[in-house]
Design a protein that fits this description.
- The chain contains 9 helices and 6 strands; from the N terminus they run ααβαβαβαααααβββ.
- By secondary structure, it is an alpha/beta fold.
- The longest helix is centred in the C-terminal third of the chain and has 20 residues.
- The structure holds zinc ion (ZN).
- Zinc ion binds next to helix 5.
Length: about 200
Amino acid sequence: MQQLIEGHKRFLAQVFPAKRDQFHLLAEGQQPDCLFLTCADSRIVPDLILQTQPGEMFICRNAGNVIPRAGEPAGGVSATIEYGVEVLRVRHLIVCGHSDCGVIRALLAPDSLSGLPSVRDWLQHVEPAWEYVDEVERHSGELTLHTALAHANVLAQLDNLRTHGFIQRAVAEGRLALLGWYYDILTGRIEQYDEEQRRFVALPG
Ligand SMILES: [Zn+2]
């Protein structure tokens, strides 16, 4: 806790004064271009790995970067996305999974969730990821299977996203692009799902 308080003191003394004008502008409102939906994992720091500034990304996080399907209990996720798309009018919505994800580990070992009823319930939103994993991947080693499932979960959550009417409308009107990303903690690299190649490839450029 002390580390957080000391950090805030440094922010007030060093960072805030240097960006005072920027924060004054931000105090009047936000116009983020991107809604970034990722896992709650402490090792994913969006503004660090994308070098973004305050006000640039509307961020929604939960265990396993989950998006419940339309009509399902949403736990605030659908409301956050709806606000981002319909009110803030973000132009890009990125669903970003990652390596060594605890939710994917739980999917591979559901018995480990005894005594965690809320996590077990939440996992039902991730189970459809199995449908996006092929036979070869299902019978591969643990690391390959984990990566395949983390990739698959991004695709499953994007499909969940597309069940929402406001998403369908925004995409049809050409004002919203949906993107699937995967962040590798070990290398720091991001991959993006390529619709034509039907696989994750290094970020363009
Ligand atoms: Zn995770």
